[in-house]
Amino acid sequence: MSVLKFKTVDEVIERANRTSFGLGAGLVTKNINKALQITNALRVGTVYVNCYDIINEATTFGGFKDSGIGRELGGSGIENYLEKKNVIIKLSDGSLP
After folding, report:
1. Residue 46, class by beta-carbon neighbours within 10 Å (0-12 exposed, 13-18 middle, 19+ buried)?
2. Which of 4, 6, 8, 27 lies 20 to 30 A from 77 at CA?
3. Do residues 22 and 43 touch, judged by C-beta distance below 8 A?
4. Mean pLDDT by 10 residues, the chain (97 residues)
């Protein structure tokens, strides 16, 4: 764990987003408004507030930037295993259903 001093919330956000990675971030605070402000601004796949490394198979897991392409788990994760197909049939009377 890295604990870094800061003067402003904007400094925290800029420092966190300056890295080329973006898998996850952790934030410890009692102020829910600041937590929401920071989590909305961070370019990471998962933000843990007052906890860390909690994963639920119903939620999507993946990162931003150099922390991978695509997503695992959740609805987005299953997309990699699906093949989608469109079928359009013109009926003999010329109509389309």
Report:
1. buried
2. 27
3. yes
4. 85 93 90 92 93 84 83 79 77 75
**69-78 long-range Cβ contacts below 8 angstroms, 24+ apart:** 71/45
The pLDDT value recorded for residue 97 is 63
Domains of the chain from N-terminus onward: 9-81 (3.40.309.10)
Give the 3-state secondary structure of residue 35: helix
For residue 18, which of 53, 69, 50, 65 has the smallest C-alpha distance?
65
Torsion of CA 45, 50, 53, 54, to 10 degrees: -90
Conformational region of residue 50, where left means phi above 0, alpha means psi within -120 to 50, and beta covers everything else: left
